[in-house]
């Protein structure tokens, strides 16, 4: 009998206790975040949309090599010292390479962050932006360019011309050396590059 | 025709109509559920007779108790999910005999209805029949009341005995 | 005897006033059901530290309307193997049972749709319509889950009607009346006169308080079972029976079940309010008393009880069938009988 009453009391008491617990929760602040209106802060190292800073990129292709899913395609061309259009790089030095093609397919990206780690100039980064979904894969294919295709073709042509000139100069020097019996200066391009930086 | 008369005809039609369904339906479950409306119609008739306590007792006991029992009985004694809940076909002879008996019974009843001099009481405005019934049951009809309760007690004991684990 | 229905006073007794008297509770049920659905959503959300619906209207208050519109638009399916007439009839039978009970609820001292002498008994009687409707729907669906749910539901309703009736009977012994209006009127004059606190009477009534309090709790628990609410929702336990007796229902007919459930919740809340919480009487004596305030107090108290039901639903898990029967027959019934006998004894001694 006493165990029966104790049992009944325990049942009632625990039910009331449970209700007290839920009543406490009733007045706590809600944990819901009403997403489109308010967003919660992502952690600082969150890896979301990949973004490239073209002013820093050197087209070194380290990111394309690091990428496990091959979503990055990079092509670059060296800046011809005789190019009238010289540019200062983001790190304060003159730009040495023109990025003629930089494409990334974010539909393929697996957000591993390896490209970010591989980049020597902090150009490619995962940002906090995660709202870039699209209705077709084409709109997730990002093409970066600072030069128009014509300009890129121009840069390629300038470099080819410069190389031709250099080769001609080299040939001339070699001829001269052969006639004078002196060895060829081991570094011919270096003073030229310095000249370019002085310009 | 005032509302009360309309209500009377409505309840009478409900009672008779669904009573006919109870008799004629081949599906036992349909017959059982038709009883719901029959009982409800009878309760309505009680209300029109100023017998409020009786009307509610009718709903309570017949709909809440007996009808549920009938339905449970039907569902538990047949294959409930199958379509076996139909009454079987009766033979021609039985049908004829039953029809003759029913007609005879109906004739007798109609004769009694027509020949009796019905005593029409003035419509007394009895408000609280519950009190009167309670007093009558516990004073004048105490023996009958107690006998009924003993019957129910015996039924409960019997049911417990049958249902008990051996 | 003064009138207990202001519509009779205003319009006299004619067909239009009858229609008005009948439709006023219906309007109330529809509005109340919308509020209760919203309360259910919001209280469950708050208990779980969520916000609940927020997008439909300010703070999501139009959510129940959206849900009703959604249900109205849904296809109304009748399964081919179902017993069509009974299948289509069942929701209306259930709703009739729930709505018929509103006929005797005393909303205010000036409004009880029908002020009959056996009001409490009547509420218990029409409650059986719901049981029949549930069996009807469960059987007619021709579905194992529906049938199991219906059988469970009816056995549960029948079991829990007894402790509930005994608890009500104890109050009837104290008031010597089954008229809900009179029971309310007896508790006038402040909350210490409510029957949950022993009813009106001298200091000797303090001996009765534990018993009436217990009976109020017992009636409340039993009423939860009668309305098939958690923790007694084994007839529609999702993990066992899909949705119980309304598994096959969709669209408007499902909405009828929904409305009937909420209407039933209000009916049992109104009974608790009337017999234990003073009905339409003001808790502060004559302060804020009157016909209009009466309706306010009545609806406030009833909604508090509905809130309690929702609160319990989102607190406690579901009982097993054997636990349910244990609680009904071995806990609630004996305790309510003991309380009933004690209260009868007190009322014989005129202690109350």
Secondary-structure blueprint of this entry?
The complex is a heterotrimer of chains A (199), B (166) and C (352).
Chain A: H1 2-26, E1 50-52, H2 62-66, E2 72-78, E3 97-105, H3 114-118, E4 124-126, E5 141-144, H4 149-180, H5 189-198
Antiparallel strand pairs in A: 1-4, 2-3, 3-5
Chain B: H1 3-24, H2 28-48, H3 52-77, H4 92-115, H5 129-138, H6 142-163
Helix pairs in contact in B: 1-2, 2-3
Chain C: H1 6-11, H2 15-47, H3 63-73, H4 84-100, H5 119-140, H6 144-175, H7 180-186, H8 209-226, H9 238-241, H10 251-276, H11 291-313, H12 321-349
Helix pairs in contact in C: 2-10, 2-11, 3-10, 4-5, 4-10, 5-6, 6-8, 6-12, 8-10, 8-12, 10-11
General description of the model:
The complex is a heterotrimer of chains A (199), B (166) and C (352). Chain A is α+β, with helices and mostly antiparallel strands and 199 residues long. Chain A has a domain at 50-152: Alpha-Beta Plaits, CATH 3.30.70. Chain A has five helices and five strands. Chain A has a three-stranded antiparallel beta sheet with strand order 2-3-5. A two-stranded antiparallel sheet of chain A has the order 1-4. The radius of gyration of chain A is 32 Å and the shape is rod-shaped. Chain A starts with a helix and ends with a helix. Residues 187-199 of chain A have low confidence and may be disordered. Chain B has two domains: 1-86, NADH-ubiquinone/plastoquinone oxidoreductase chain 6, subunit NuoJ (Four Helix Bundle (Hemerythrin (Met), subunit A), Up-down Bundle); 128-166. Chain B has helices at residues 3-24, 28-48, 52-77, 92-115, 129-138, 142-163. In chain B, helix 1 runs antiparallel to helix 2 and helix 2 packs antiparallel against helix 3 (52-77). The relative contact order of chain B is 0.07. Chain C has one domain (75-349). Chain C has twelve helices and no strands. Chain C has helices spanning 6-11, 15-47, 63-73, 84-100, 119-140, 144-175, 180-186, 209-226, 238-241, 251-276, 291-313, 321-349. The longest helix of chain C is centred in the N-terminal third of the chain and has 33 residues, at 15-47. Chains in contact: A-C, B-C. The B-C interface holds B 3, 27, 29-30, 33, 36, 52-53, 56-57, 59-60, 63-65, 67-68, 71-72, 75, 80-81, 127-130 and C 15, 18, 83, 85-86, 89, 93, 116-118, 121-122, 124-129, 131-132, 135-136, 139, 142, 144, 147, 151, 154, 158, 161, 178.
């Amino acid at each position: 009998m006493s165990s029966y009453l104790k049992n009944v009391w325990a049942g009632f008491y625990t039910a009331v206790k449970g209700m007290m617990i839920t009543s406490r929760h009733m007045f706590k602040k809600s944990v819901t975040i009403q997403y489109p209106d308010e967003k919660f802060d992502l952690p600082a190292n969150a890896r979301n949309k990949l973004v490239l800073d073209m002013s820093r990129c050197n087209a070194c292709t380290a990111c394309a090599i690091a990428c496990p899913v091959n979503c990055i395609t990079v092509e670059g061309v060296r800046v011809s010292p005789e190019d009238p259009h010289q540019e200062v790089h983001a790190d304060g030095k003159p730009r040495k390479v023109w990025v003629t093609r930089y494409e990334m397919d974010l539909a393929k990206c697996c957000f591993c962050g390896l490209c970010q780690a591989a980049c020597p100039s902090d150009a490619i980064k995962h940002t906090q932006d995660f709202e870039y979904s699209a209705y077709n894969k084409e709109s997730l294919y990002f093409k970066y360019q600072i030069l128009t295709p014509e300009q890129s073709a121009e840069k390629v042509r300038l470099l080819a011309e410069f190389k031709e000139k250099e080769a001609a100069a080299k040939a001339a020097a070699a001829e001269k050396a052969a006639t004078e019996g002196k060895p060829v200066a081991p570094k011919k391009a270096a003073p030229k590059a310095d000249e370019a930086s002085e310009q | 025709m005032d509302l009360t008369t309309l209500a009377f005809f409505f309840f009478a039609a409900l009672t008779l109509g669904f009573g006919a369904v109870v008799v004629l339906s081949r599906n036992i479950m349909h017959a059982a559920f038709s009883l719901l409306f029959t009982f409800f119609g009878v309760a309505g008739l009680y209300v029109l007779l100023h017998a409020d306590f009786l009307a509610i007792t009718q709903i309570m006991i017949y709909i809440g108790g007996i009808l549920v029992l009938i339905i449970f009985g039907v569902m538990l004694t047949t294959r409930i999910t199958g379509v076996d809940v139909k009454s079987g076909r009766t033979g021609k002879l039985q049908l004829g005999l039953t029809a003759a008996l029913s007609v005879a019974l109906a004739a007798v009843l109609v004769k009694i209805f027509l020949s009796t001099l019905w005593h029409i009481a003035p419509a007394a405005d009895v408000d609280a029949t519950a009190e009167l019934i309670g007093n009558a049951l516990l004073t004048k009809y105490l023996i009958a009341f107690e006998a009924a309760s003993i019957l129910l007690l015996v039924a409960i004991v019997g049911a417990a005995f049958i249902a008990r684990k051996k | 005897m003064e009138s207990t229905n202001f519509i009779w006073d205003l319009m006299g007794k004619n067909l239009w006033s009858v229609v008005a008297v009948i439709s006023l509770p219906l309007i109330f049920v529809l509005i109340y059901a919308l509020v209760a659905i919203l309360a259910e959503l919001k209280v469950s959300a708050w208990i779980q530290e969520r916000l609940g619906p927020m997008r439909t209207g300010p703070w999501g208050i139009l959510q129940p309307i959206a849900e009703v519109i959604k249900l109205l638009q849904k296809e109304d399916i009748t399964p081919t193997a179902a017993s069509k007439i009974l299948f289509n009839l069942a929701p209306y039978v259930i709703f009739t049972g729930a709505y018929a009970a509103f006929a005797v609820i005393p909303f205010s001292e000036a409004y009880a749709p029908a002020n009959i002498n056996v009001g409490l008994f009547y509420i218990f009687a029409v409650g059986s319509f719901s049981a029949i409707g549930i069996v009807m729907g469960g059987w007619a669906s021709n579905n194992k889950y529906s049938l199991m749910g219906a059988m469970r539901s009816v056995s549960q309703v029948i079991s829990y009607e007894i402790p509930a009736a005994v608890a009500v009977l104890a109050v009837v012994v104290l008031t010597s009346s089954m008229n809900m209006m009179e029971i309310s009127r007896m508790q006038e004059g402040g909350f210490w006169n409510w029957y949950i606190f022993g009813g009106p009477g001298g200091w000797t009534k303090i001996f009765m308080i534990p018993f009436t309090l217990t009976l109020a709790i017992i009636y409340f628990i039993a009423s939860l079972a009668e309305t098939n609410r958690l923790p007694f929702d084994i007839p529609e336990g999702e993990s066992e029976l899909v949705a119980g007796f309304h598994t096959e229902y969709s669209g408007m007919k499902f909405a009828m079940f929904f409305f009937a459930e909420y209407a039933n919740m209000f009916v049992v809340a109104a009974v608790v309010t009337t017999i234990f919480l003073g009905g339409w009487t003001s808790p502060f004596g004559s302060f804020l008393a009157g016909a209009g305030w009466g309706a306010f107090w009545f609806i406030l108290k009833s909604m508090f009880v509905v809130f309690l039901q929702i609160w319990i639903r989102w607190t406690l898990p579901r009982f097993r069938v054997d636990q349910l029967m244990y609680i009904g027959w071995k806990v609630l019934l004996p305790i309510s009988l003991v309380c009933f006998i004690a209260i009868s004894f007190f009322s014989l001694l005129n202690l109350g």
